[in-house]
Specification:
245 residues; alpha/beta; 9 helices; 9 strands; 36% helix; globular
């Protein structure tokens, strides 16, 4: 339940993802879609009105339960909910017209394995949407350190290049050119940490580090700023897409 609470949807972020997805052409109402590592089902619900059916696939029962409950409340009847390991998807090759994953890559310990599985079961388009890290390795390392303090399931934020490289390394996908669009999403630091029930010591360390940068210290890669007396920071969202060869 705690983990499910971490991933409350941000409507503007998902609107950005859908807008970029549509650059390569909108989904068809005849398509079968898979949302891999679906979490609380944000992407699955976005695709539901556009596709014939959507499979929301995730490893965590609490996530799927929340996803199914929300879908039922919204009257969405074409989503199925399936639990399992995304590194070994239980589908035959080229089963889906659209395979997507949102805000999951930065939790994967072996993202290349999972993205290759996503490409294997796709016959159309593969889409990765995630928060991205800075190209500067020092900045990204500090961002990842703070992200892990907040949520230990975080592994590493990919760069925009690495997000596209994950598709390319499958050797199954023709990677589409980057849209050039990165969405800057502001977040309230305290709310962000409260949502994940971050322990007090870790919260204090994260806040202290943000205040250090605000005072002119070394950068975190998270672009902290103060708004109405509260510390905020920025998550950067990007989308990578490819079509099955």
């Amino acid at each position: 339940t705690k983990q499910a609470s971490l991933y409350a949807p941000h409507e503007r972020c998902q609107a950005f993802v859908m807008d970029v997805l549509n650059i390569a052409g909108p989904p068809s109402d005849s398509w079968l879609a898979l949302d891999a590592a679906s979490g609380t089902g944000v992407f699955a619900r976005s695709l539901s009105p556009l596709c014939h059916s959507v499979a929301a696939f995730d490893a965590t029962p609490a996530m799927l339960a929340r996803s199914e409950r929300t879908g039922r409340e919204l009257g969405l009847q074409n989503i199925t909910y399936e639990q399992g390991d995304a590194s070994n998807l239980p589908y035959t090759d080229q089963s889906f017209d659209l395979v997507v994953s949102r805000l999951a890559v930065h939790h994967f310990s072996e993202p290349s394995t999972i993205v290759t599985e996503m490409a294997r079961v796709c016959r159309g388009r593969v889409v990765l949407a995630d928060i991205v890290g800075d190209d500067d390795t020092t900045l990204r390392a500090e961002t990842d350190r703070l992200e892990r303090l907040r949520d230990p399931s975080h592994t590493s934020c990919p760069t925009v290049h690495e997000l596209h490289e994950l598709l390319e390394q499958t050797e199954l996908v023709e990677v589409l050119g980057f849209s050039g669009r990165v969405y800057q999403h502001p977040l309230d630091l305290e709310v962000w940490m409260k949502n994940s029930e971050t322990p007090k010591q870790a919260r204090e360390e994260i806040e202290e580090r943000m205040r250090e940068e605000l005072g002119g210290g070394s950068k975190t890669g998270m672009q902290p700023f103060v708004k109405e007396g509260r510390i905020h920071f920025v998550h950067r969202y990007a989308v990578a897409q490819g079509t099955r060869k």
